[in-house]
Input
Amino acid sequence: MFTLESFSITGLEPISLTLDAGECIGLSGESGCGKTRLLRALADMDEHSGGLSLDNTPCESMCAHEWRKQVALLPAESQWWHDRVGEHFCIAHDDAGKACIDEQAVTRLGFGQDVMSWQTSRCSSGEKQRLSLLRLLANKPRVLLLDEPTANLDPEKTRHVEQLIADYVAREHAYCIWVSHSAEQLQRVSPRRFVIADGVLKNG
Amino acid sequence: MGELIHLTAPDLMLTALLILALVGLSARMQLGIGWQITIAAIRTTAQLLLVGLVLKSVFNNAELHWVVLITMVMLTVASWEIMSRQKRKLKGWWGFGISAFAMFISSFLITLLALLLIIRPDPWYMPQYMIPLLGMLLGNTMNGIALGMDRLVTTAWQQRMIIEQRLMLGQTASEAIRDIRTDSMRAGMIPIINSMAAAGIVSLPGMMTGQILAGSPPVEAVKYQILIMFLVTAGTGFGVITVLHLISHRMFDTRERLRFDKLLRAPRV
Output
């Protein structure tokens, strides 16, 4: 279980919420309502108070970097700092030399196997968005916090991404919080949806 | 060896004219640097004259507490100087403390080491040795430390999104800042490495030139210069490492979050 218990950040009413294994919830709300800040706090990138735990392990009892590997945040805008795409995969201290790239996922998102040697500076924003998802999944996280993961994609690629994430969540019994502005998309990806309005998280 | 040729006030006036000419030209061409040059020239004249007088009196009564007082003043001023050269100002006393600590390691300890183990004047705090040595170390290591520190803070600020992205992918704080730290170490060390490489071929170092002008045999002057170069390099290196270590620690909180709000002064609105 991924559990929030009176979880609060500034500007939002405390949130109590439990996700079951394999569950994906949708989250929407106007720009600036605090969706992104909520995801950041869940990944322990910002300060928060109240309870937060993954499979009964409280956030504060884990090392922060260990927590973030498990509770992975996909920001709306991804960052790439090395020359080649492949250099950004499996970069945490404990996966040195691990071959953790899922070749099947690479193909499903429409890339050839040579994608890892691509130059990051020449990738389009849509390519970066899909690659950043692959990079995130390579860490095998338990929780996916997705901040508009298909904002730069055409409808066909959007479907591929939705399918890939749904399969990952089902296969790994993972948890997923999906932020999107598109009501149709949230209806496709999650049966349980929430809206943030006036600082309060409500069923939507 | 010939007598030392004394400089007279008119000699210095003549060089001051050069500065004035430069300021005039800068004003004409609207280069906007004239005022800064003027201030700096006045400062250097006043400061050096003052120091000359102070040194004269300290040399005459070489007592430990006077020497300690002067070295403390030098250390403090150097630390302020480092702070004032930062593009993004560190917050509060902590920022000053970090530079002071780095200067203490890079200059004070190294000077003590050189005096006690190598030069061994009697008494060890003999101001004719202690003060010029410390001054030279402070002046030279200060550059490297200020450069390394500035590079670390400004690059980390510019690349804060990248640092956070690395954290989100499960890297530890020290992994996320490692590349920037390496780069900053380089930035801090390059000037002294260059001056070691160029010494004697491209440039004659100031201290050596001074000793030769004052009538020392060149080879004696060279030996001192090599000593100084090594001390400065070691001091700069240890100083930069200290600063980078302390600042990159301070940049993150216990949950490995990037916290510029704790590190930097808020920009004026």
